[in-house]
Amino acid sequence: MTEKASQKANVVAERLRAWDPKAIVEVMEFRGETTLVIPRELLRAAAERCREYAELRFNLLTDATCVDRFPHEPRFELNYHLVSIPRRDKIRLRVRLAGADPVVDSLVPVWPGANWLEREIFDLFGIRFSGHPDLRRILLPDDWEGHPLRKDYPVEGYRDVPNTGALFRKSSA
Amino acid sequence: MTTVETATGTAKTMVLNMGPQHPSTHGVLRILLELDGETVVKAVPDLGYLHTGIEKSCEDKTYSQAITLTDRIDYLNPLGNNLVYCLAVEKLLGLEVPKRAQYIRVLLVELQRISSHLVWLGTHALDLGAMSVFLYCFREREEILKIFELFSGQRMMTSYIRIGGIALEPPAGWRAAVERFLKMMPSRIDEYEALLTGNRIWMGRTKGIGYISTEDAIALSMTGPTLRASGLAYDNRKLFPYSSYEEFAFDVPTRTDSDCFGRYMVRVEEMRQSLKIVRQALNKISHDGPIRSEAPGIVPPPREKMKVEMEALIYHFKIFTEGFSPPPGEAFVTVESPRGELGCYVASDGSSKPLRVHFRAPSYINLQALPKLIVGQLIADVIACIGTIDIILGEVDR
Q1: For residue A146, what are the CA distances in angstroms to A36, B90, B135?
Q2: What's the pLDDT at B36?
Q3: Which positions ≥6 away from B87 have C-beta within 8 Å?
Q4: How high is the pLDDT of residue A32?
Q5: Whether the predicted pLDDT of B279 surpasses 90
Q6: What is the SS3 assignment for B57?
C-alpha cells in the first residue's frame, strides 16, 4: 500500500516538477494518502495542470477545506482534494498561508465547483480568494463578526451569549 | 427590477422570495428568484438558516464523543455519517475492523439508503402533486426505522457505528426482521413505479426538466444520483471501495437523460440494487464473531471483561474520560451517501480531541448547481429541480 502510494506520488510530483522545478515544496505520505505542498503563487497554475495533463486528469475537485494551526505559523493549511475519475486516483494539494496575509488565488476558473467551497472557507476562516466571482459569507449572516472556525475564536462564540442572569433578575423583580 | 429582452420585446422582471419556510424547499432554504413572467431569469440561493457549527463543536469533543454530532448532519443518513466519520478516525489510527462488523455496517447503510430514497421519493412526488405516493413511501420507511430501533434503540439518531466496530451485538430476531423487509420491499418498489413511471402527469412534470450535461456536472463537483443520471457511473462503492464493498455484487445504475426523470429512475433502481446488497450482507454476516477490533485504550472492552479484569476497567475509564490520542496526521475518507460523495476529513495534532473535522457534504455541493438547472425554466419546475437534487438542509448548513 505504502509502496503503491509513493509510486503514485512520484508520478504526480514528477510531472509537476517537470513543468516547474519549484512547483512542489514537499511531498507527504500518511496512511496511503499523498499530500503535495504547492507554493502559494503557483496554486492555480498547478491545479490547472493537474486537471489538464493527460497522465493526471484530476477532473473532479471533491473538497476544499482549511486547517488552522494557531499559534504555529504559517497558521493556515488549505487542502484541496482532487479525484481523477478516469484513473481512479486521489491526491491532496496543500497551500500554507500566514495569518498576517491569508490571500490565495481562487480555483473557480479551474473548477467552477470551487465557488461555494471557497465561500465557506472565507466565511469560517477568513481566507480571501483573489479572482473569486462572488466572495460573500455563505453560512453565517453578512454582518457576523469574526470567523468561527479559527482556533482563537471560542467555541461559545463572542456574541449572542444568552444572558440568563439578567433575564432571571428581571422576572423576579 | 430590471428590464430584459424577451421573444416579444422587452419586459420588466420581478423578484420573488422563495422560502426559507416554503413547504417544498425541503427545510429552510431561501432562493431569490428573478422572474420574467413565469420564467426564471436568475436564481440566488441563500443558505445558513440551519447552521449549527457542528464542525466547530467536534473540535471540543473527544474522538468518540463527536460520533453523536455526526448523526445530526444529514438526518436521513445518520448511519452513513457515523460510518464516514469512524472510517476516517480508523484510518488515522491505522485500525482494522473485523469482517463481521464491516458486513453489519454495509447492511445498515444500505437499509439507510433505501429509507433515505423513500423519503426523497415521497416528498418529491408530494411536491409535484402526487399525494398517495408519499403515504406509501413512509409506510415502508417505518419498517426500516423499526429495524434501526431494534439494532440501536433509536429510530433516527442511531450512533450505532463506533470507532473500531459497532456499538452492540445485533439483538435477537434481527435476521427475521430484515428477511421480512427483503420479502416485502421488491413488490412495493414496483408499486411506486406503477404509480409514477408511466404516469403522464409525472412524465410531463419531470421529463426534460432540469437538464445538466456530464461536463457541467463534473465541473460543478456534483456527485451521486445527480451525476449518475447525467451518464457517468461514478460511485465510491465501486471506484474506491470501503468497508468490504468490493466483495458485493451490484450494479451502478446510470441514465443519459440528465433530467429530473433520469434522476428519479436512477434512485428507484438504486433501491433495488441496495436490496441486493442487503441480501448478500445478510448471508455474509456470521452468527457469532467479534463486532469490535481488539485495540486496548481505543475500543472499549466488552462489559463482561470489565468485571473480571482490572486492565479492562482501567481502559474503559480512560476511554470515556480523557479519550485516546491518534498520531499527528490527517485522513480523508469518502463514502457513497444517498445524496452523493460524503467525505470526512479529520486532522489530529496528537491530542485527544480532533484538530479539525470537516464534512464534505454532498447536498451542499450539489445545491450549487441549482441556478444552472433552473434558469430558463418555469417557476413550477424550480420545485421539481430542488426535489431531484435531494438536499438535506441539516447537511447543507451543518
Answers
A1: 30, 33, 45
A2: 84
A3: B242, B243, B333, B335, B344
A4: 85
A5: yes
A6: helix
Q: Would strands A89-97 and A33-37 be described as parallel, antiparallel, or unpaired?
A: parallel
b/e map of B15-50 (b: 16 or more CB within 10 Å)?
eeebbbebebbbbbbbbebbbbeebbbbbebbbbbb
pLDDT (0 to 100) of residue A170: 46
User: ipTM of this model?
Assistant: 0.86
Segment B138-173, tens digit of pLDDT: 999 999 999 999 999 888 888 899 998 898 889 988
CB-count exposure of residue B84 (10 Å: 0-12, 13-18, 19+): buried
**Shortest alpha-carbon distance between residue A77 and chain B (Å):** 11
CA geometry: angle at A81 spanning A77 and A82, to 5°? Answer: 140
Its pTM stands at: 0.89
Please indicate whether, in this complex, the C-beta atoms of B56 and A30 are within 8 angstroms of each other.
no
Q: In chain A, what's the furthest Cα-to-Cα distance?
A: 76
- Closest chain B residue by Cα to residue A82: B221
Q: Using a CB-CB distance cutoff of 8 angstroms, which residues of chain B are in contact with residue A85?
A: 218, 232, 234, 239
pLDDT of residue A81: 93
Residue A15: count other Cβ atoms within 10 Å of its Cβ: 16
What is the SS3 assignment for B223? coil
Domain B54-397 is classified in which CATH homologous superfamily?
Cytochrome-c3 Hydrogenase, chain B (1.10.645.10)
Using beta carbons and an 8 Å cutoff, which residues of A are at the interface with B?
30-31, 33, 35, 59-63, 65, 67-69, 79, 81, 85, 88, 90, 92, 111-117, 120, 124, 137-141, 148-149, 153, 155
Annotated domain spans of chain B: 54-397
User: Could you give the 3-state DSSP secondary structure of residue A63?
Assistant: strand
Rounded to whole angstroms, the maximal C-alpha distance in chain B is: 86
Q: What is the DSSP track for B300-352?
A: PPPHHHHHH-HHHHHHHHHHHHT---PPSEEEEEEEEETTEEEEEEEEE-SSS
Identify whether the C-beta of residue B354 lies closer than 8 Å to the C-beta of residue B93.
no
Q: Which domains are assigned to chain A?
A: 2-172 (3.30.460.80)
Q: Rounded CA gap, B37 and A146, in Å?
A: 41
Convert the pLDDT of each residue in B315-351 to its tens digit. 889 888 888 899 999 999 999 999 999 999 999 998 9
pLDDT of residue B225: 92
Spatial contact of B395 and B361, defined as CB atoms under 8 Å apart: yes
Confidence of residue B304 (pLDDT cuts 50, 70, 90): confident
Neighboring chain B residues of A90 at a CB cutoff of 8 Å: 240, 332
Instruction: Return the C-alpha torsion angle B73, B78, B81, B87, nearest 10.
Output: 150
Cell of B210: 432540469
